[in-house]
């Protein structure tokens, strides 16, 4: 689903003068990115290769849209403890037993084509995602009805408190008068998006596209008039463009990230621990996965063979931090990391003897070439990674050297982002390096429900959304159902379910924990005011984090205004 996303990162490979020439052209087409009070923000999301025109907010391969073009009912800031911010909705409340959610909508909102926004659009969107599983990345199971034009009531068969932030903050509302004609909205390519958001699509080319401020936006036209998204061919091209002040915002690695202000005058950087870097495994043979990684023993052996300290240093400039095998955010959720885990944190140093013990107990024997095998099949695995995502490529290359010591052969398979994303969604891989993302609030329930619940996966060859590992565990599903019913204040009841989920994940490891990623963005502080900083995180400061990016765009103003 969203993000998601999941979620592109600034990870690109070497580039040359051709990339800079393209960038200069893109900037000039959008009004440039030089000094003065330029009202165009040029952003680099890590797009390697041409964009494919698609602004469907429910597609895993969308370019842009959630938050900017299409809005949710409320905005939840997952990095700061504060009330939800009203957007298309203004108020919401639960009944006493958590089976009915009532929402008041903003009056006077129009779609960008001039049609009136009403409760019917909300009901249509919610009904649509229940009919199309591939669109239902939150596992929503409610029944929505329009009370009148500005009120919606959603009922559930059982208490569903945890559904609230997802429905309110992670479902992007689309216009019924357009989408009702889509034969398959889950896969329909949207090239002319109509939304209620602060921006509309101004132009599109494969190498760059522009969003323009919506003059009829219900909250007033943003001061930031244009956002220009560009594709570059390399990380060096991104660094060079930053140096030349040709781009204004990117999220990801640049050389010597600790000294951005010195190396890139006029720019600043902010780093926050956010997503959890993992090796996604196509884990479930019953759903069509093939390869050695379908064996939990192989996944656990890889887990122990990794030297996370070295990976952090060589690939991530020591911006990463420890990760829990139970996938509770370490920094914000220490108190709910289960005491029943064998290890509360993944080891930073390798334990090759433990890795080999696990493999040998599972029936693997080491060949003359030093690689383990079982039933005549060598323990050789391929990791899909996007061409040019240099930190991830370095991480995989480093892992390959580390795993040799444990008798496991690892090979990187590089491809374009579009091909990589398609393979990840369809299950056409053995391993993928990527990250798991949190939900609308820091509660780990959301990460669990997105990536570990049976409801959000599919057979190989069908689109999973976003349980790409094809993981299905009845104990985890049962615990998720209990968590959804429990009030957020019922800490004891909730912890019992967290314990179940975390211990099952530690044993099964459908996603092999690597590190908690330190998400770093570089932004043009001299050109625009209003950026989130570590002292004022009014939104997740990552260009690919949706809908946070829209909150940032709305806050930005040309410097000096």
UniProtKB/TrEMBL annotation:
Domain of life: Bacteria
Lineage, opening ranks: Bacteria, Bacillati, Actinomycetota, Actinomycetes, Kitasatosporales
GO MF terms held by the record: peptide transmembrane transporter activity
The protein, known as: ABC transporter substrate-binding protein
One GO cellular component term noted in the UniProt record for this chain: ATP-binding cassette (ABC) transporter complex
InterPro entries: Peptide/Ni-bd, SBP_5, SBP_5_dom
Any one GO biological process: peptide transport
Family: Belongs to the bacterial solute-binding protein 5 family.
């Amino acid at each position: 689903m969203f993000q998601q996303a999941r979620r592109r990162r600034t990870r690109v490979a070497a580039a040359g003068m051709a990339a800079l020439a393209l960038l200069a052209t893109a900037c000039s087409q959008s009004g440039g990115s030089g000094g003065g009070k330029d009202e165009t923000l040029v952003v680099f999301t890590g797009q390697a290769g041409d964009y494919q025109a698609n602004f469907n907010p429910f597609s895993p391969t969308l370019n842009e849209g959630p938050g900017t073009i299409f809005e949710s009912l409320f905005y939840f800031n997952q990095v700061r403890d504060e009330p939800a911010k009203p957007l298309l909705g203004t108020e919401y409340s639960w009944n006493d037993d958590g089976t009915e959610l009532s929402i008041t909508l903003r009056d006077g909102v129009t779609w960008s084509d001039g049609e009136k926004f009403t409760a019917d659009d909300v009901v249509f969107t919610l009904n649509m995602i229940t009919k199309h599983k591939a669109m239902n990345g939150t596992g929503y199971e409610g029944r929505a009805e329009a009370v009148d034009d500005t009120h919606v009531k959603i009922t559930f068969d059982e208490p569903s408190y945890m559904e609230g932030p997802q429905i309110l903050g992670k479902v992007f509302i689309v216009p019924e008068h357009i989408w009702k004609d889509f034969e398959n909205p889950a896969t329909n390519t949207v090239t002319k998006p109509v939304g209620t958001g602060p921006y509309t699509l101004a132009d599109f080319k494969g190498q760059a596209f522009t969003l323009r401020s919506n003059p009829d936006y219900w909250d007033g036209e943003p001061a930031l008039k244009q956002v220009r998204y560009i594709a570059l061919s390399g990380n060096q091209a991104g660094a060079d463009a930053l140096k030349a002040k040709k781009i204004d915002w990117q999220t990801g690695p640049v050389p010597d990230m600790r000294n951005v202000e010195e190396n890139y005058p006029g720019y600043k950087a902010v780093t926050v621990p956010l997503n959890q870097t993992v090796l996604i495994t196509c884990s479930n043979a019953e759903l069509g996965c093939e390869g050695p990684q379908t064996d939990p023993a192989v996944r656990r052996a890889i887990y122990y063979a990794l030297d996370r300290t070295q990976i952090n240093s060589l690939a991530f400039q020591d911006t990463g931090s420890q990760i829990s095998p139970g996938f509770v955010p370490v920094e914000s959720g220490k108190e709910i990391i289960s005491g029943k885990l064998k290890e509360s944190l993944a080891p930073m140093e390798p334990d090759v003897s433990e890795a080999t013990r696990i493999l040998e107990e599972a029936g693997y024997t080491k060949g003359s070439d030093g690689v383990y095998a079982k039933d005549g099949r060598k323990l050789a695995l391929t990791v899909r990674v996007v061409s040019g995502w240099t930190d991830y490529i370095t991480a995989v290359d480093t892992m390959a050297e580390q795993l040799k010591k444990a008798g496991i052969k690892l090979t990187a398979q590089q491809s374009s982002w579009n091909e990589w994303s398609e393979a990840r969604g369809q299950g056409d891989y053995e391993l993928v390096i990527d990250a798991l993302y949190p939900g609308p609030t820091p509660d780990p329930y959301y990460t669990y429900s997105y990536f570990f619940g049976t409801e959000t996966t599919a057979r190989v060859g069908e689109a999973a959304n976003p349980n790409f590992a094809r993981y299905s565990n009845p104990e985890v599903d049962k615990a998720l159902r209990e968590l959804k019913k429990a009030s957020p204040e019922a800490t004891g009841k909730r912890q019992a379910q967290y314990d179940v989920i975390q211990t099952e994940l530690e044993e099964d490891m459908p996603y092999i924990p690597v590190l908690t990623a330190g998400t770093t963005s570089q932004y043009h502080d001299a050109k625009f005011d209003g950026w989130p900083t570590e002292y004022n995180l009014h939104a997740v400061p990552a260009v690919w984090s949706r809908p946070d990016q829209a909150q940032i765009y709305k806050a930005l103003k040309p410097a000096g205004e």
